[in-house]
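Example record

The entry below shows one chain as it appears in the dataset: sequence first, then structure tokens.
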Amino acid sequence: MATTKASTKSDSKNKGAARGGSGEKSTRRQNAEKGFVASKQLGKNLQAVLVDLLELSMQGKQAHWNVVGRNFRDTHLQLDEIVAAVRTFSDTIAERMRALHAVPDGRSDTVASTTTLPEYPQGEITTTETVDLITVRLEATVGTMRDVHDPIDEEDPTTADILHEIIDTLEQFAWMVSAENRTPSKG
């Protein structure tokens, strides 16, 4: 049975790296893994999706804790449902990156400096405003996924299929959340 020696190179060049690194670096293949390896661009595109999902989960929790007003309970519970789904999605994307030998970067400084989501306001927020704020953030996260979808699909249709499922769920959440503030159209 063939064995592989562990790398003896020192990782000292990575020690003390600046905070907020790109997270794009691919890992070397380990042991018997011989699967598909993400290109640098695929890793970068998945990293963009990951940071928006992580930021959405944090902002969703911020909204959950600080929402007040009419329909509080329903909004509060719906936000928890969204956060739970988005946390699962972020884990799915990060683990997909690892399966493709890309390195996810979910550190708070990386997320804060690279997300496309607008900053969430501090303090108590009415249910009506919370609905609008969360809808915008759901749609922004979907926008990031749609922006990177075609290049991801060209390189790895399997990963694009994962994005399809996430987009479908987030768009459904955006519809359900935004319906709270809508009035029926006439006609």
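Notes for this example: Residues 1-19 have pLDDT under 50 and may be disordered. The longest helix spans residues 127-155.
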